[in-house]
Amino acid sequence: MSGQRLTRLLLLGVATLLWFAIGGELLCRFEGGWRLDIATLTGRPAAPPDPNPALDSERALLASVTYQKGVDPAWFFLPPASIEKSASPMLRARTVANPDGQQQQNYLWNDALLSHPDASLVTLLRGLKIATLFAFPSFDGSIYPHYRLYPDNDYQPTPWITNHWGWLSPEVTVQKPPRTIRVGIVGDSTSHNRYGFYLQGFLDSWAHAHSLGIRFEVMNAARQGLGFEDEMVALKYELGPMGLDYVYEYFAPGFSASLPQMVAFATLPPGVEAGKPPLDRHPGLDAVRRVLDPLAPVSALARRIRDEIAHEAPDSSLYEPTKPLVRLHLPVSGDKVVIAEVVKDRYFWSLLVQLSHFKVIASGLNATPLVSTERLCVWDGMVLRNGSSRALYQMLNGPRFWPFSYADLRRMLAVHNGAISAWAAANGVAVVDIDGRLPRRPELYNDPYHDIAISQRLRAWLIFQAMVPQLEHDLANRLVPHDNAEKSGLHPYLDKPIEVLDRNQWLARAAEQSSAKGAAVSH
Amino acid sequence: MIYSNYDFLLLLPPLIVWFYNLRGVFAQNLLLLTVSAVFLAWTNLWNLLPAVIVLAVGYLWFRLDARHRLGWRGAGLVIACLVLQLAYLKYRGFIAQTFGLLVPIPATLALLLPLGISFYTFEAISAIVDIQRRRRRVPAMRWALFIMFLPHLVAGPIVRWRQLSPQFASAKRFHWRNLSVGLHLFTVGFLKKLAADATGHIVDPTWAAPGQAKWSALLLALLGFSAQLYLDFSGYTDMGRGIARMLGYRLPLNFRAPFFASNPGDFYRRWHVSLSNWIRTFLYDTLAVAVSRRVRGRKWQNRALFAVILVVMALFGLWHGSAWHFVLFGVAQGFVIAGWAVVTKGRSPRSRLGWISSLLALQASWLFSLILFRGDSLPVIGQFLRGLGREGWSDPALRWSLVALAATILVQAVDYYVRRRPVARVLCALRGTALGTIAVAVVFAGALALKISLDAKRIANGGSGEPSRSFIYFRF
Fold first, then answer.
1. How far is Cα of residue B181 from the mean position of the Cα atoms in its chain?
2. For B11, which residue in chain A has the nearest alpha carbon?
3. CA neighbours within 13 Å on the CB side: how many for B290?
4. Which of A314, A383, A444, B402 is buried deepest, with most CB atoms within 10 A?
């Protein structure tokens, strides 16, 4: 190769590099929303929000979950039921003082639990910046439910205010207005959201469209972290006196709440420890990141390359990492479950007992129970987008589920949901197939259990559709509304005054109890 | 990466400059092959795997056949392997749903529909048949480039071995005329893609939830989608042909004003010409000859040929996607082709009125088939069909889909009449001149500015940085 030609190619190479560097930088700045006229990366001013946000994607999702005849999809877009009141300033001040956490500073604690606290509760309450604790008298002397939500509290970030009994519902009176059907909801954090408001709106729209002359009141007594015992006591004592006609329970998160429970279904390969995923770091990539990190504040191109390498770019694909081969030994395979087969397993026996218990309590209240299949946001071969599903990815592939693959989790969930459906079929209980019907879209979830606002609304839409045939039957046969509300007009358990305790005194007493217990154990 | 993306627009000028600065055919071919591989792997590295398998299986067979004369049985085996790979990667979901046959797949490949797999698999099959017939030696580089050639890699046109491979035999030298004509084709395609995206934005919401739309909105959405499909796909092939021409290669026409066809046979000689030719050559002719030999009597032969058309068109539909609604689309088109032949007895319309009537009837049947094509599932198709009886007027935005359709017909009308020689000669002469090149460059700059302003607005509104929608035909 002649010297002249070599020089020409070298110059061409330099020019190409410059072309890609300058062009790439401009392109990354343009696509990333950075200003082009300032060296350091500065965001362009955002445009004012669109006054009419497009509902296209919502319409598409809605079309995929609408299946019931006589249901108009237009109702989906009507405003939900609402609660018009302002939050208590006293509670707001406590929230401002404790910005982190889940609003435990404003919980109403069960006084039986406060009398016999465990270490985790003491730790939690010691960490809060509050002078007083709120307590309510235990309904039946037990520690369940562990807590209630304080009335008129503003539960941010979802803007809602609890009603005067601490439910996530519009205001209701104990006395049942004429021609009113009441629907109760019990559950945990997966139901601790606004879907009760939407459900009431859908049911009222349906009743209005069919000129039924009835109205609905939906009372959502779900709250974060509740267990089955909490939920049943809440159903019996909190919702029971309201005269429920129907009660819906969402049994999440079931088997997936506990890694030991999942391990009980499996044989792990030698050397694999549940809950301990290997560190996913590559030294070569780390070195590239170290080079790019100092450039990232001034170069959108460097930032984009770094994010692509670390799978941190919004549109990076997150594939399931390689996992050890786990052998599952479930009582049955697939979702066609025979109760006699699964009941031999301890977990499924317990699940079926809980379902039966729920049915017994609901029947005791003269309310029709509705159960639901459980949604865990995981599917075999699922590829996630970094921008929308990073947290979901980290949770599914982190200690909480390690070493179970997406396929393993799906197989366990199939049997779990199959058991619920089989039990419901055998007991004549309606089942809302949340897992089967909700769109399989990971971006609808914050983590494997908790869905985002639009998905909660879709869930309400599914519950509503599942209720329609039951309602048509019951109304035609004049089985609802029941006249089963408390006649006195006062709630026998919730209309009691809230007890206010000095937190430091309570902590001191708890410490004494703890040391006395320790001494008794050592003796 | 797609042709209308900024990433690609950034890549193209250095590619052209380097291509013409390299000496020798090997260096030029190697550069093209490398850039094609990067293009394919840009969104997902795994896109390369099936293409590499096609290359390896094909080349291994050529070598073995040259040494041991494996003949048609060997070729059949290789073709079966390629079809199996296509079925495994593209149709396993369809097979699982239809036959309950679950095929295991690694997680990394589970949601991957490898880019362009249908196109390069069909090209490989046609090449294997052509090479087996002619007994030609196949150099590795030419085989690799034939499959991986950037301008036709992911969405055709599906070229034959004899059309493309000789072009890789010699080094290309720079000619202004190639650059000018190529830029002209690329600009036309770029404009079509912009129009297709805009039309998509208008009609997609109606297609997403047809159960709530009125009949007029549904009709407009259907017309709009017809325009969008044509603009999108013909735009892609125009851009591909333009890139090839800028580099000194020639790819065949894939669309010849299909909305001006007067019968179904004519339509498929104008719509996605390369796929239609492939289907006719490798499926229809083979089956038709086999059936004609086995079935006796004119009447029964006609019936058998009717069945062959339906089967071939069902496969044509299935090629577009692994779902039953695509099969129904193909079957509907099969009925149109066969029914048309029965009704008209193969005669062309004699009067202008007859020509217009057949044109309208053909378009009506095409639009009906597009409902089956575009509806995401059978329930959505049912909602769409039921909705056509729902009274009410459309959203004003949807009227733009009429504008899109009118523009599409105008583009095709120009395309149709430009082929009349005097006009064509003037235009061809003009686009090769400096003045023509400047005019095309100005139009391209204007189109690019329009795209940048639209994307800037969307990004400012919090939209994603993804500048363009994928081409519809990328899914196939």
1. 21
2. A20
3. 8
4. A444
Residue type, A461: W
Q: Do A47 and B461 touch (CB under 8 A)?
A: yes
Region class of A50: left (phi > 0), else alpha (psi between -120 and 50), else beta? beta
Which H or E element spans position A147?
strand A147-149
Tokens of A267: 């044989």
> Tokens 């019936």 map to which residue?
B303
Interface confidence: ipTM more than 0.90: no
Report the residue of B212, B384, B458, B468 to disrupt the A interface, i.e. the one with the largest count of A CBs within 10 Å: B212
DSSP A152-210: T-B-SSS--B--TTS-SS----SSPPTTEEEEEEE-STTT-STHHHHHHHHHHHHHHHT
Taking the C-alpha atoms of residue A461 and residue A77, their distance in angstroms, rounded to an integer, is: 11
Asked whether B149 and B240 are in contact (CB, 8 A), the reply is no
Share of chain B above pLDDT 90, in %: 12
Pick from B123, B373, B152: which is nearest to B243 by CA? B152
User: CB distance from B429 to chain A under 8 Å?
Assistant: no
Write the pLDDT tens digit of every residue in A357-370.
999 999 999 999 99
Residue B174 above 50 pLDDT? yes
Chain B contact present for A53, CB below 8 A: no
pTM as predicted: 0.67
Question: What is the per-residue pLDDT for B393?
Answer: 67
pLDDT in tens, A82-118: 888 888 888 888 888 888 777 888 999 999 999 988 8
At residue A327's C-alpha, the angle toward residues A325 and A333, to 5°, is 130
- Asked if B460's CB is within 8 angstroms of A30's CB, the reply is no
Q: B111 at the A interface (CB within 8 A)?
A: yes
Location of structure tokens 């030999």: B293
Q: Which of B475, B467, B476 is nearest to B3 (CA)?
A: B467
pLDDT at A115: 92
Whether A325 contacts chain B with CB within 8 A: no
Say whether residue B38 is in contact with chain A using an 8 A CB cutoff. no
> What is the pLDDT, as a whole number, of residue B467?
47
Q: Minimum mean pLDDT among A199-208, B40-49, B399-408: which range?
A: B399-408
Other CB atoms within 10 Å distance of the CB of residue A46 = 10
Residue with the larger pLDDT of the pair B429 and B473: B429
* CA–CA gap between residue A523 and residue B12 (Å, rounded): 83
Residues of chain A with C-beta less than 8 angstroms from the C-beta of B41: none
Condensed to tens digits (0 to 9), the pLDDT of residues B97-143 reads 777 666 666 656 655 667 788 888 988 998 888 888 877 778 888 99
Q: How far is CA A118 from CA A115, A125, A262, A460, B211, in A?
A: 10, 11, 26, 36, 55
Beta bridge partners of B295: none
Place of tokens 């009603």: A163
* Minimum-distance CB partner of B10 among A23, A46, A47: A23
CB atoms within 10 A of CB A323: 19
Q: Do B208 and A59 touch (CB under 8 A)?
A: yes
Bridge partners (DSSP) of residue A368 are A246
Q: Which positions 41-70 of B are in contact with A (Cβ < 8 Å)?
A: 44
- CB of A381 within 8 Å of any CB in chain B? yes
pLDDT in tens, A385-441: 877 788 899 899 989 999 999 988 998 998 999 999 999 999 999 999 999 888 888
pLDDT above 90: percentage of residues in chain A = 40
Cα–Cα distance for residue pair B449/A8, rounded to 1 Å: 32
Instruction: Compute the nearest-CA separation of B204 from chain A (Å).
Output: 8
For B383, nearest residue in chain A (alpha carbons)? A63
More confident residue, A253 or A307: A307
Is any Cβ of chain A less than 8 angstroms from the Cβ of B395? no
With beta carbons under 8 A apart, name residues in chain B contacting A47. Answer: 457, 460-462
